C-alpha cells in the first residue's frame, strides 16, 4: 500500500485531540505540529478524514518539500512537478501562501511565482493555462515556508471542513464548528450527557452536540475538492464511505440539550441554524437571563463561550456580571460541572469559584482558556473568621 502524507490544520490547542481522532479514523504515524497534525495513509484515509473529522480544518495532500533560498528556487521546484497528472487545466486555482520566519520579503510575489510555475507547466504540456479564482476556486494549492524549507500541498477538502456544508443564519458570528467540537471533546462531554449552553448565541455548540448525538458524519452533505484530483479513486471509494456513515445515522429526536440566551435575536438565530440542519426538534431553546435561570435537570455539563468585552464600558459591565454569575452557579447549579471558554484569564477570581483544569485554546488569534469548574453549593473560598 502506498502511503501519502497529509497535513490537517486545526485551531491551536486542539492538536493533541486531533491526533487521537486521526488515529481512530485509521491514519498512521500522526505527528503533532503547531496548529495541526501530519499523518500518513492511503486515499481511503484522506476521504474518511474529510467525511468524519470534527476537528480538522482541511486535509492537505503534501506533494513536495525541500529547501529554498529565494523565489527563483521556489519557481523551479514548482515548475517541475507533474501538475497536469493531478488535475485538469479547466479547473480554477488559488494559491494560499503562509510563512513562519521566512527570509523572503513579499509573500504576494512568492504566490505569483508559484502561479507562474503551474501555468507554465500547463502551457507546455497542454497548450492552455488554468485560470485563477481567489474566491471560489476548484483547486487550492497551499505553500508553507519556514526559515529554509518549503512545503507544497494540494487541498483535498475545498471549502474548509468546519463549514460543514451549511451557511449560518445572516447576522450570526458563530464559533467555528471544529472549535465547537474541540470544546465539547476537551470538556469530556459524551452523547447522552445533559448539556446546557447558557450563552448559546447562534448555537454552534448545540449544533455540534446534536450532530454527534445522532451519529451524523460532519462531511455528509457537502462536496470536496478530492473529486477533481485524478489520482484519487474517489468515484469508487466515496459512495462506500457515505453508505457506511448513513447506516449509523439516527433520525432527529429530542435530546438532553438546552440553549439559553438573554437575547431574543440570538435565540432566533440558533433556531434558524438548527432548523436549517434538520435539528430543530433535538434542542430546547429558551430566552432567559442566566442569572434568573434554573438547571433543566439535576446534573449535567454547562458548556459555554462566555461574552467578552472589547470597549471599556463592556469590560466594566462584565466585571460586575461575573460575581453575580458565580453566585448563580453556586446556588442554583450545584451538582453540575461548568466548562467556560473565556479570553479573560482572571475569570475564576472574578467568579470566585475554584477551577479544576485550565486548557489553552485559541479562538482564531484570540488566546483563551477552557475553565473546568465543578459546582458545589456554597463558596469554595474560605472565609476569615471574625473574632468574638
Structure write-up:
The protein has a seven-stranded mixed sheet. A seven-stranded mixed sheet has the order 10-9-8-11-12-14-13, with helices on one face. It is of the alpha/beta class. Strand 9 (257-261), helix 9 and strand 10 (284-287) form a beta-alpha-beta unit. The protein has two domains: 4-160, VC0802-like (2-Layer Sandwich); 162-217 and 250-374, Vaccinia Virus protein VP39 (Rossmann fold), CATH 3.40.50. The radius of gyration is 24 Å and the shape is elongated. Helix 3 (71-79) packs parallel to helix 5 and helix 6 (177-187) packs across helix 7. Mean pLDDT is 93; it is low at 379-388. The chain has helices at residues 15-24, 43-52, 71-79, 83-86, 107-126, 177-187, 204-214, 234-248, 264-276, 312-332, 347-351; strands at 4-9, 28-33, 36-41, 60-67, 93-99, 139-145, 149-155, 195-197, 257-261, 284-287, 301-305, 337-342, 357-363, 366-374. The longest helix is centred in the last third of the chain and has 21 residues, at 312-332. The N and C termini lie far apart (80 Å).
Notable features of this structure?
disordered C terminus, single chain, alpha/beta, about 400 residues, 11 helices, VC0802-like, elongated, 7-stranded mixed sheet, Rossmann fold
Order of helices and strands: EHEEHEHHEHEEHEHHEHEEHEHEE
What would you call the structural class?
alpha/beta
Question: DSSP helix count?
Answer: 11
CATH domain fold name of the largest domain: Rossmann fold
User: Unreliable segments (pLDDT under 50, ≥5 consecutive)?
Assistant: 379-388
Largest sheet: 7 strands, mixed
Number of strands: 14
Question: What would the principal axes of the Cα set say about the shape?
Answer: elongated
Specify Rg, calculated over alpha carbons. Answer: 24 Å
- CATH superfamily assignment of the largest domain? Vaccinia Virus protein VP39
Beta-strand residue fraction: 15-25%
> Regarding CATH, which class of the largest domain?
Alpha Beta
- Overall number of domains: 2
In CATH, the architecture of the largest domain is: 3-Layer(aba) Sandwich
Q: What percent of residues adopt helix (DSSP H or I)?
A: 25-40%
For the terminal residues, how far apart are their CA atoms?
Answer: 80 Å
Strand order of the largest sheet: 2-3-1-4-7-6-5
Amino acid at each position: 500500500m502506498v502511503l501519502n502524507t497529509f497535513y490537517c490544520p486545526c485551531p491551536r490547542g486542539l492538536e493533541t485531540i486531533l491526533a487521537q481522532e486521526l488515529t481512530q479514523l485509521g491514519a498512521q504515524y500522526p505527528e503533532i505540529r503547531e496548529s495541526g497534525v501530519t499523518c500518513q495513509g492511503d486515499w481511503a484515509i484522506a476521504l474518511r478524514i474529510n467525511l468524519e473529522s470534527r476537528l480538522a480544518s482541511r486535509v492537505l495532500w503534501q506533494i513536495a518539500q525541500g529547501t529554498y533560498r529565494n523565489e527563483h528556487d521556489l519557481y523551479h521546484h514548482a515548475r517541475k512537478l507533474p501538475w497536469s497528472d493531478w488535475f485538469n487545466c479547466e479547473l480554477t486555482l488559488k494559491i494560499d501562501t503562509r510563512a513562519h520566519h521566512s527570509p523572503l520579503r513579499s509573500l504576494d510575489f512568492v504566490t505569483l511565482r508559484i502561479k507562474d510555475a503551474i501555468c507554465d507547466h500547463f502551457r507546455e504540456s497542454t497548450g492552455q493555462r488554468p485560470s485563477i479564482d481567489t474566491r471560489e476556486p476548484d483547486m487550492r494549492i497551499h505553500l508553507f515556508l519556514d526559515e529554509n524549507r518549503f512545503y507544497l500541498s494540494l487541498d483535498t477538502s475545498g471549502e474548509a471542513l468546519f463549514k460543514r456544508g451549511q451557511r449560518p443564519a445572516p447576522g450570526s458570528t458563530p464559533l467555528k464548528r471544529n472549535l465547537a467540537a474541540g470544546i465539547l471533546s476537551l470538556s469530556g462531554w459524551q452523547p447522552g450527557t445533559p448539556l446546557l449552553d447558557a450563552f448559546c448565541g447562534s448555537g454552534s455548540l448545540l449544533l455540534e452536540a446534536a450532530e454527534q448525538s445522532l451519529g451524523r458524519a460532519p462531511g455528509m452533505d457537502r462536496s470536496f475538492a478530492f473529486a477533481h484530483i485524478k489520482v484519487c479513486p474517489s468515484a469508487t471509494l466515496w459512495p462506500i464511505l457515505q453508505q457506511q456513515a448513513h447506516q449509523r445515522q439516527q433520525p432527529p429526536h429530542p435530546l438532553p440539550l438546552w440553549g439559553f440566551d438573554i437575547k431574543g435575536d440570538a435565540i432566533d438565530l440558533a433556531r434558524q441554524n438548527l432548523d436549517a440542519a434538520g435539528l430543530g426538534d433535538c434542542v430546547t431553546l429558551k430566552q432567559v437571563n442566566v442569572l434568573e435561570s434554573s438547571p433543566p435537570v439535576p446534573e449535567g455539563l454547562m458548556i459555554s463561550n462566555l461574552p467578552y468585552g472589547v470597549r471599556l464600558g463592556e469590560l466594566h459591565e462584565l466585571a460586575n456580571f461575573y460575581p453575580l454569575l458565580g453566585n448563580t452557579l453556586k446556588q442554583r447549579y450545584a451538582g453540575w460541572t461548568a466548562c467556560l471558554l473565556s479570553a479573560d484569564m482572571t475569570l475564576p477570581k472574578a467568579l470566585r469559584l475554584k477551577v479544576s483544569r485550565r486548557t489553552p485554546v485559541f479562538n482564531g488569534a484570540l488566546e483563551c482558556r477552557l475553565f473546568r469548574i465543578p459546582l458545589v453549593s456554597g463558596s469554595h473560598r474560605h472565609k476569615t473568621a471574625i473574632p468574638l
